[in-house]
């Protein structure tokens, strides 16, 4: 049986949540080629609205923010219309929608974007990763280093995307500062070799993340903004150094972000519970924690240990649109079909059976 702590209501920013579960952001590559989410996307998120807090897949704030094929955007009028249908579907089922703003930085390939330009990053250092493209896996190229003017434009892009999300009816946004993407690239010394105010020291490497968060909070209200971080996460060729280096970097960053009074901090956690506890001690609002490989019996462990307020679900929610009902009733869970995770249509997306259909 699941822990009783999962079923306690919670206030997050401006929204009232019925319990402590949420939908974790997961890329599904099912937007239209122009980045507009279509009707199937609305169905998918509406099906999972019983999770309360629905955090969407990574959604690019600009053309340069795209890395993978058929990922959604939130910066054009068409995008706003598409996402408004998603927001309506989620709200109709009683959920709250936060759109994750994800700029991939160097984790891109020109073949996957409409403009076919070189990717951008803090420094001209390739991630040296295999990137899926229409013609098969290709290595990520060497990116173009962002100028100071480019950085200012990128911050403005995040601001505009956040405003667009609210215009679409979303309840808020989550800034993706994790998993090897642009904000994480600024934080990591092996991807950020800059010699200006955005590189070098811990304070300088943190600056871009803080400025993005401050701009988005100013634009739509801090209580509509979450941020995701992943200390020590090696995705995308990131290497943040030894444990003490990571703790120094993130203690500073989280301390500065805490002063913005954002709605929540979302930690993709890879094992340093001492660092996680330090976040909990300084963060003034909600903390969300997701870990790889949790069993259903472990979902509430971080809540019960007072390390988190909310436990976002990934694959459990992907394969079980009614995962909340299944957990409440100790019912069996569907297994994920790994062949249908990325791209395609309704198969492995909106056709997982519910208990009522079994």
From TrEMBL:
It comes from the Bacteria. Gene3D superfamilies: Aldolase class I. Residues 6-333 form the NADH:flavin oxidoreductase/NADH oxidase N-terminal domain. InterPro entries: Aldolase_TIM (IPR013785), OxRdtase_FMN_N (IPR001155), Oye-like (IPR045247). This is Alkene reductase. It comes from Rhodococcus globerulus.
